[in-house]
Amino acid sequence: MGELRDFVAEVLERRGAAVEAVEPDGLEVLAPKPVRDSMGWPELALLGFGAQRPANAIPIGLEGDWLDRFGTLLGDHGRWSERQLTPPGRAVAPGDPQRMLDHALDLPNAVWRFHGMTATVTRCLMLAFHYTALSDEKREGLIWLGFNLGTGAIIDDIATRLRRLLAQETDWQAPEPDARAAAGPGWSGEVLAARLRPLLDLRVRQELEPFLRAMRRRLERDRNRVHGYHDDLRRSSLNRLAALAGAAGEKAESDRRRETMRVAAIEREYGAKLDDLRRNYALRVTVEWMQALELYVPVQRFDVLIRRRKGERLIRLDWHPLVRLIEPPPCEAGLGLDRVRFVCDDKLHLTVPAGQAPCPSCGKAFCRACHPAACPRCGAAVTGADAALN
Ligand SMILES: [Zn+2]
Ligand SMILES: [Zn+2]
Which ligand is closest to the CA of 377, given by its number? Predict the structure, then answer.
């Protein structure tokens, strides 16, 4: 419980409380009135965090609504922050840039050449989202996304490692003016929204995949059970009806009527049970932005010359010395989470393979970065899945 106690102590101190640690695993808190009122504490409160806590302590834990109450105390503080990470001696250059690029670039229809490398600073944006999926069961979690605003690359992997480094860094270094100038401007809200939406959508789907699979299995099982039960009832009624087919007389007639009504009732009930299942398993997913961190880090920026037919073009990708990883190459249509890029004939755009694929309507291959909205030959609209992002 040490981390929770530290967190609570820090939040309370920031809100003007005097806090003192008492053992085992407790805090003595002298809080100003607004804090006391919102937490429902006396003027001098003793809080306990562990299984073993001081006598008479108010037990604080992850269960109950304590986190919500501390969240209210925090308000919007900590939603957005910026930080620089430049540990001394880490801004080295890679020994063999060519080999590094061999791993980073896979261009099946173009050639490339290493052109140069510059040490600079870039700004990485890391965003945390909280998702909740609710159907017959509930599943929630956090998703972190990372972008290099300097190159446009999606850097989830690198960002995860950078966050791990941050956790070890006790000093909070604000970005220096030089670092800001070198990193250049950030993205507009529109650019960020356009880049964010498909990526977040994909990540939420990936996170929820096992949950959805298990849910579908339960639904299938319930549906089979409901079907089996009603099917048996209906079948025996139909059998009785068949047995009555040849019989004459008033009794047989009334038996037939009764069985026919029974069959109708069973079918109605079956329909109602299916509706119940549908309601019970209806899925509702909500995704909420929690936190943003803009992190200024040193990078080695690679200039790479791309050649396709008679055209050539310079692209950039960053190598991150802090985690010794290179980013995926830029991608101008499609998410581009792996390193395969096709290069277009006209403007040498880099896209995912599907970004140069034939039009599903007329069969003409075209570049989704050149023509983000529709096929240039037949005008068929480009669908969401392979739409351009930049
Ligand atoms: Zn193009
Ligand atoms: Zn077409």
Answer: 2
Contact 147, 195 (CB under 8 A): yes
Angle formed at CA 240 by CA 239 and CA 245, multiple of 5 degrees: 95
Contact in structure between 383 and 368 (CB atoms under 8 Å) = no
Low pLDDT (below 50) residues in the chain? 386-390
Q: What is the pLDDT of residues 101-118, one digit of tens each?
A: 998 999 999 999 999 999
Q: What is the pLDDT of residue 389?
A: 43
- For residue 371, how far is its CA from the centre of ligand 2 (angstroms)? 11
For ligand 2, the distance from its centroid to the CA atom of residue 381, given in whole angstroms, is 8
pLDDT of amino acid 89: 67
From ligand 1's centre to the CA of 361, what distance in Å? 19
pLDDT of residue 152: 92
Residue 382 CA to ligand 2 centre (angstroms): 9
The pLDDT assigned to 385 comes to: 52
Distance, in Å, from the CA atom of 368 to the CA atom of 336, rounded to the nearest integer, reads 13
Alpha carbon distance 184, 149 (integer Å): 9
Question: What average pLDDT does the structure give for the chain?
Answer: 90
Ligand nearest to the CA of 332: 1
**Contact 106/319 with Cβ under 8 angstroms?**
no
Alpha carbon separation from 349 to 117, 261, 273, 340 (Å, rounded): 21, 68, 54, 13
Burial (0-12, 13-18, 19+ Cβ within 10 Å), 178: exposed
Instruction: Give 223 Cα–ligand 1 centroid separation in angstroms.
Output: 49
* Shortest-distance ligand to the CA of residue 348: 1
Q: What's the confidence (pLDDT) of residue 36?
A: 87
Q: In this structure, which ligand is nearest to the CA of 331?
A: 1
**Is the separation of the CB atoms in 132 and 204 below 8 Å?**
no
Q: How far is the CA of 368 from the centre of ligand 2 (A)?
A: 12
Neighbours of 333 (CB within 10 A): 27
